Amino acid sequence: MISRLTLSERQLALGVLLFLGIIGLAMAAAGRNDPLGGQGFIVLLFSVGLAFYVMSGYFAPEPDESRLASYYDDPTKVGIVLAMFWAVIGMAMGVWVAALLAWPELTFVDEAWASFGRLRPVHTSGVIFGFGGNALIATSFHVLQRTSRARLPDQFSPWFVLIGYNLFCIVAASGYLMGITQSKEYAEPEWYADIWLVVVWVVYFLIYLRTLARRKEPHIYVANWYYMAFILVVAVLHIVNNLAVPVSFSHAKSYSLFSGVQDAMTEWWYGHNAVAFFLTSGFLGMMYYYLPKRAGRPIFSYRLSIISFWGITFLYMWAGSHHLHYTALPQWVQTLGMTFSVMLLVPSWASAGNALATLNGAWHKVRDDATLRFMMVAAVFYGLSTFEGSFMAIRPVNSLSHYTDWTIGHVHAGALGWVAMITFGSIYALVPWLWKREAMYSPRLVEVHFWLALAGTIVYVFSMWNSGIIQGLMWRTYNDSGTLAYSFVDSLEAMHPYYIARTFGGLLFLAGAVVGTFNVLKTITLARHESATAAEPDMPAIPATSAVQAGE
Q1: Contact 72/152 with Cβ under 8 angstroms?
Q2: What number of other Cβ atoms are within 10 A of residue 269's Cβ?
Q3: pLDDT at residue 401 above 90?
Q4: For residue 531, what pLDDT is reported?
Q5: Alpha-carbon distance 133 to 139, whole Å?
Q6: Calpha distance 116→459 (Å, rounded)
Q7: pLDDT digit string (tens) for 60-118?
Q8: What is the secondary structure of 395-451 as a DSSP string?
Q9: Of 15, 118, 151, 549, which residue is most buried, by most CB within 10 angstroms?
């Protein structure tokens, strides 16, 4: 892949890696008595390793101009592999922490890093940001080029975004194991990692703008609307929520600019909109391209997809305060969040219904094609999760569900049933297209993965629904004397069988991810040794006679 870069791009890559290595060395030196030093060594080793890789192909001949007549898919290919890698790592951590809740003595290593509190954010960040983030970056590059009929503006910046983003994920995950955290849900990384992500994200946004500005297609397809909303809003959320003052430049610890209930409100404005624009908007962009493409049918209602986009974009921004019912947050702010959460059901179901209606007339394909079945089930779970979320945001319902496993079940109905399902379906559609093969290495393994994923999701979600409702009822049950009928320990004992079921459900889903990763890697390996022709050409609509010039 280095051989596809021009000499100037290779030099730029080495320059960036040199700068990054110096930053890592400075962190290691300044933080020698602080966990920051360990983070610095990770950055340094990462930079040095990549620099050696770039140098291995530095003297390769320059690529010819014919490359400019085709789309640039190398970052997408690597992004898919990284997404599957993070899926296995993140879900394995999830099974581990689920097992710790069922069997607390199941700590293989009596060390701080192996505790539940440190492993859990590795799981959540690994799945959401590692798996989901890499999938979004990879697919967005692919969709952007096809729907714009324009090549990415250059070859260096996509690699900077992809590799820089994974450096962020590595620094974040290793930091959690060291005990470095802001203690904010979905925003645990400390100040230095947050700053680096801003740099990466700005470049990501500029790639999108530059490519759209060079598009040969006058219309901007709706998938790009959703991807752009994901990139832009996540940047705003990340910057505001992570405004903090470091103890010093030699310490990993920082303190938020906000305090008390303001900090909580800012956090859940960020947290719920991370769900909205990272876990919803971006993956809706994925759905609006790959589902109709795989089904061979146009979107049922393009106008409805636009209406849904503006509904989600406007309404979601106000919904975060429903996480803070019965707190010190002003009542009117809680009510505002509840109201907009209920209103969100309309645009959310518009997209879910639009996806299912698109499949009308193609149900025979859903029956026979496990890849399309992944996408169909994802649309169903998206509709289910959004209905459940609106329902749980209602204050009286929230009084039962809050702090219980019902919330955990809701989150995983969305994360496993919606996010993971649409991602796996998109990857299974995309891999044969990119590697020019008729199909995946084993369509039967795709089928196996689908049933493992579906079974795992159902077992997990239903166990948490039952567990959460039982928890909520036990915590609010009083005896005749007016005291609580059950102690907290009683509720824990009642949860034990459900925690075992959750672990089993997670294990099924992890097994499916392992099967999927094996299938993807085998497909890639075979493609390198065979000259197969893709069943459906996925070549650019750019004439070779009018080559697209990088950077024009």
Answers
A1: yes
A2: 20
A3: yes
A4: 57
A5: 10
A6: 22
A7: 888 888 788 889 999 999 999 999 999 999 999 999 999 999 998 887 777 889 899 99
A8: HHHHHHHTTSHHHHHHHHIIIIIIIIHHHHHHHHHHHHHHTT-SS-S-HHHHHHHHH
A9: 151
Distances (CA, A) of 476 to 359, 408, 463: 45, 19, 20
Query: At 130, which amino acid appears?
Result: G
Can you tell me whether residue 291 is helix, strand or coil? helix
Q: Cα–Cα distance between 89 and 179 in angstroms, integer?
A: 19
Q: Which residue has the tokens 């993971």?
A: 420
Q: Is the pTM of this model over 0.90?
A: yes
CA dist., res. 144 & res. 220, Å (int)? 9
Select from 334, 69, 75, 42 the least CA-distant residue to 177: 42
- What is the maximal distance between C-alpha atoms in the chain? 87
| Burial tier of 183 (Cβ tally within 10 Å: 0-12, 13-18, 19+) | exposed
DSSP string, 377-404: HHHHHHHHHHHHHHHHTSHHHHHHHTTS
Q: CB under 8 Å to 305, separation ≥6 — which residues?
A: 222, 288, 299, 350, 351, 354
- At residue 66, the pLDDT reads 79
28-51 burial, b at 16+ Cβ within 10 Å, e below that, comes to bebbeebbbbbbbebbbebbbebb
Q: In Å, how far are 58, 320, 552 from 62, measured between CA atoms?
A: 10, 51, 20
Q: Which of 82, 283, 235 is nearest to 166 (CA)?
A: 82
- Please check whether residue 229 is in contact with residue 196, taking contact to mean a CB–CB distance below 8 angstroms: no
Cα gap 330→333, rounded to integer Å = 5
- Alpha helix ranges (H) inside 214-258: 222-241
Q: End-to-end distance of the chain based on CA atoms, in angstroms?
A: 23
How many residues does this entry show for the chain?
552
Place of tokens 């996408």: 375
User: Which residue, 293, 5, 350, 263, is CA-closest to 157?
Assistant: 5
DSSP 348-384: HHHHHHHHHHHTTT-HHHHHH-HHHHHHHHHHHHHHH
Q: Which helix (H) or strand (E) holds 246?
A: strand 244-246
Specify the DSSP element, H or E, that contains 254.
strand 254-256
pLDDT tens digits, 424-469: 999 999 999 999 999 999 999 999 999 999 999 999 999 999 999 9
Nearest in space to 38 (alpha carbons), one of 247, 197, 180: 180
**HSE value, Cβ hemisphere, 13 Å, CA-based, for 456:** 25
